[in-house]
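Hi R.,

Here's the chain you asked about this morning:
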Amino acid sequence: MAKRQEVSTDTSAFYMELSKLEKNQEFDKALKICNKILNVTPKDDMAFQCKMVCLMQMSKFEDALRQIKDTHFDIDLLFEEAYCLYRLNKPELALETLENNGKGDKNSDRVKELKAQVYYRLEMYQESYDQYKDLLKNSSDDFELERLTNMQAAGVFVESAPVTTDDEESYEMCYNKACQLLAREDWVNAEKALVKSEQMCKDFMKQEEADDEEIEQETGIIRVQIGFAIQMQGSRDREAQTIYNSVLKSKPADIGLVAVASNNLVTLNKDQNIFDSKKKIKAATADGMEHKLTSVHRAAIARNNALLAMYTNQVDLCKTLINDLAGSFEKHYDQDNRDLIVAGVLARSGKVKESVDLLLKDKKDDIDRILIAAQVLLEKGDVSGSIAILEKLPSSVKHRTGLLSSMVALYCANAARPKAAQLLKEAVTSANKQKSANPEDMKLVWRKAAEFHLKGDEPSVAAKSLEELLKSDPKDKTTLAQLVLAYAKFDLGKAMEMSKRLPDFTGKVVDVDSLETAATLSKYGKKTVGLSSPKTQSPEQQKEAAELSKAKKKKKRKKKLPKNYNPNVDPDPYRWVAKKERPDFRQKRDKRKGKTEKFTGAQGNAAGQAETYDFSGKVDASKGATPKSPPVGAPSSAGPRKSTSQKPKGKKGKGGKNRF
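And here is the predicted structure, written out as tokens:
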């Protein structure tokens, strides 16, 4: 009976059908076959393992993981368990399962490859890179190209990983090479590699007979990286913005891609277009980003979110976001970086004192924070407070050319010129003592100090700076001239002696009279052509002047004449007058009406109203004069129903004119 039962439980036919379904990728039907085998032979280990593979191929990882843990089969399924944990976004548990695998072979290729992927997900890029490198060295199969591509992806975050120089065999490898160049800030070459990768991807997709929508979805991440490479070059922001918007317009399914493109658009907007930035940052901070982006990307998005709150003066929200940033991404942004953002939002919201106190709290020797605090006060118009903070800087910093110039300008704006002069004197003295200082910086300090003291009527102090400047370059004409001017104000002897060192004037002959005449001409006066008169010019100079005047002459443009123009006939003198106001037109009109009227010009018939507006013959009524009676036959201004004996009441008649 036992032998008959074994014969009746033969499952070879099921396994043959299972093999065919596996080749055709029909895993849902294969799962049913596995269940049939297990119904016939409940203790068939191979059938159960095939069932787990079918569930994983159908992305039913939770079902597979639950059955693996509840199984009574004595087989090694730790690899399948680790893979399910990895796909369920639990890389820590997956790595723990792989490392505690005492039953299986830890050195098998599939375990090494899964471990390399888990390392990458955990951002252990060096370990992932080494694992892939070991796989490529000790294995040889059809997956070599995929392993090389993944190794390049891990090498993007490994500084010691070399950038491949060979011709890429796939667009993925070309893309990973471009990412390596981006990580090394080689923006130009990265852009070239990305453009090549995009074209390779399009060609490959067309060979696979993909439609335009599929090609656009596949190349979306490449185009976003192209936009990033262009944006980081600094001069093509508009082009990068166009690329990001075109990718978002295609509505990609990858939320990670949407987050990166939206975040980059926020950085392009900066403190402008705040409404658009709010919409973009909302898309960049959607749920599920922790499984799509690295911690570096998520930290950058979180920081930009806090900066956006700073630009909109939302103090409480900004502080909340900064606390979240400290809790989740502390290793990416230290306390100093977070304090700067909080200080910025306090300053923008008008809380200047709190902002300055936060910047200088326990950081009184931090030069960057001191400069930022001074800038905050200066933007609010507190020049005295800004100077008081800058004065706390050490002398070695205050005597730097940029800061020295700023402090002198602030002293002058605050009516503290003596302090500015004292600071310049200290800077000059310090420059003389520091022989190891940059010579160009020392020259600039001496030059600016001399110009400042010359304007401040301190020629003796300016002369000292110019003397030091002259030692570095004894033949500098500018320094010699300035030194002569300085000596001339307090020591004429030295001025005469120094003037002898000035070179002789060997320029062109200058006509002094023409210069004086040109100087006295008004803005609209006649301008002279040259500096020297024709009498004092040499033949070569006269020739040059003639050529110059000839070149300056504009070629007269030929006048355009009407098509019916007759040079023998004088033009119509009334050609600029409206047609209805021309004499010939009015005569024709009057002839039709049976009357003639004298032409009065284009401005209307005003001749007849001369008497109306002539007040020279009218006498004030208060002096005893009486108004003139209207002529016989003229209509009365009082109207048809009023008596002519009534006096006018002062109202305006027809046309708005007063009647007398």
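One quick note: DSSP finds 34 helices and no strands in the chain.

Cheers,
M.
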